[in-house]
Amino acid sequence: HLIADIEHGNIKVPQFQRDFVWEISKSAKLIDSVVKGYPIGEFILWKTNEQLRSIRNIGRLNFPEKAGENIEYVLDR
Predict the structure, then answer these.
(1) 28: which residues sit within 8 A by CB, 6+ positions away?
(2) 19 DSSP 8-state letter
(3) Are 52 and 15 in contact (CB under 8 A)?
(4) Model confidence over 7-49: pLDDT tens digits?
(5) In the predicted model, what is the mean pLDDT of residues 48-65?
(6) Residue 28 region by backbone torsions, left for phi larger than 0, else alpha for psi between -120 and 50, else beta
(7) Shortest CA distance to 17 belongs to which of 52, 42, 41, 49?
């Protein structure tokens, strides 16, 4: 569900979040664990219907904007 929510624009990374610091190999292992359904710990999400001025995309992927809907912003992992 996590990947689908990201692809549909329901979960976003806010611009005020710190820069990405993980190495590619560590990121790949996290995604692999998510896809396989392994426990990965917790994400802290902020759910709001307020649209933030700027959103950080993930890599080169641009995800759809969802105005007026509840969006969950990743605050920490």
Answers:
(1) none
(2) P
(3) yes
(4) 888 888 887 777 777 888 988 898 899 889 899 888 788 888 8
(5) 72
(6) alpha
(7) 52
Note whether 49 and 68 are within 8 A (CB): yes
Is residue 10 within 8 A of residue 71, CB to CB? The reply is yes
Q: What is the pLDDT of residue 59?
A: 66
What tokens appear for 33 in the block?
């664990």
The pTM for the full model equals 0.59
Mapped onto helix, strand or coil, the DSSP state of residue 31 is helix
Here the tokens at position 23 are: 């190495």
Structure tokens at 69: 């809907």
| Distance between CA atoms of residues 4 and 45, nearest Å | 16
Q: In sequence order, what are the beta bridge partners of 8? A: none
